[in-house]
Amino acid sequence: MEEMSTREISKIIYDKINSHKAILSKAYYETKDKIGYFYIDDVLPKELAQKCFEVFPDKSDMRQLKSIREYKYVSAQMNKHHKLLEQVIYAFQDPEVVKLIGNICNIESLYADNSLYAGGLSLMAKDNFLNPHLDNSHDADRNRWRVLNLLYYVTPEWEKEDGGHLEVWPNGPKENPVMIESKFNRLIVMATHDTSWHSVNKVLANNNRCCISNYYFSDEPLKENDSFHVTKFRGRPGQTFTNIILDLDANLRMFVRKLFRKGIRKNPHVYKKDE
Question: How far from 172 is each of 42, 135, 144, 231, CA to CA, in Å?
């Protein structure tokens, strides 16, 4: 396959999304009262999406996150990985792509995140999971609001029975979620605010579910009554003990952030481009 530039990749993404703009706007509008989201398939040429999977780093080259909250592998240090993955990530940050998605979601001020704060690459292998949670409300400096989560999946032939699918909880984590499959070459765009609970169900397949992710930020929150909050996790319905532990965990981290506006340490999950 002939090598492409980041700009060429972003043009493909823009044209694909723009050709379905009306349908995507309708999907977002119909869900935005609780958790706005839309998804679109076949975002990139199949060969290019396949190549993303082929060059995706092994989990041994990524940072493991394993706790009662989550079990997955992540990386934002893109210069340690194949050039194509960095190109695709930043293709989603092209100003025209950002503006188009902002128009679809009716968000006027919208900014991509060059530092990849909490974005980048994620890999989930067998038995990996992500409990229901709310994303941190702001960027690293608490200057802008985190408003959109972009998830682009690149594992070929990923099926429903494989697990590892995104779940959104429009009625909160005590009710039933809506599952959105993590299909190959699919982009999911989801709003993030103080009630946008989401999770990833356990991976059941002996394979890796690979995802390229971005966050977009804004000068204003999506909801007028939003307030600052740290990432907050919950257990699944019926996991009473897990909920007690995770509530204590969230309350402690929130207390620390009230004392120290930017926390007591920098989040290591950013792209340190001087390395």
Answer: 30, 14, 25, 15
Express each pLDDT in 220-268 by its tens digit: 999 988 888 889 999 999 888 898 898 888 778 777 666 665 554 566 7
Which residue is it, tokens 């006027």?
Answer: 108
Q: Which residue has the tokens 């869900």?
A: 31
Greatest extent of the chain over all pairs of C-alpha atoms, in Å: 53
Helix (H, G, I), strand (E, B) or coil at 266: coil
Assess contact for 83 and 96: CB atoms under 8 A. Answer: no
Query: What secondary structure letter does DSSP report for 37?
Result: E
Cβ neighbours of residue 60 under 8 Å, at least 6 residues apart? none
Contact 249, 242 (CB under 8 A): no
Q: What is the pTM of this model?
A: 0.94
- Indicate the domain borders of the chain: 6-259
Instruction: Give Cα separations from 40 to 106, 107, 121, 233 (angstroms).
Output: 18, 19, 19, 27
Task: Kindly state the tokens that stand for 216.
Answer: 């977009």
Domain 6-259 in CATH 2.170.150.20? The answer is no
Q: DSSP assignment of 199-220, as one string? A: EEPPB-SSS-EEEEEEEEEESS
Residue-wise over 190-217: b if at least 16 C-beta within 10 A, else e?
Answer: bbbbbbbbbbbbebebebbbbbbbbbbb
Q: Which residues pair with 112 in a beta bridge?
A: 216
**Residue 24 contacts by C-beta under 8 Å, 6 or more apart in sequence?**
17, 38, 40, 104
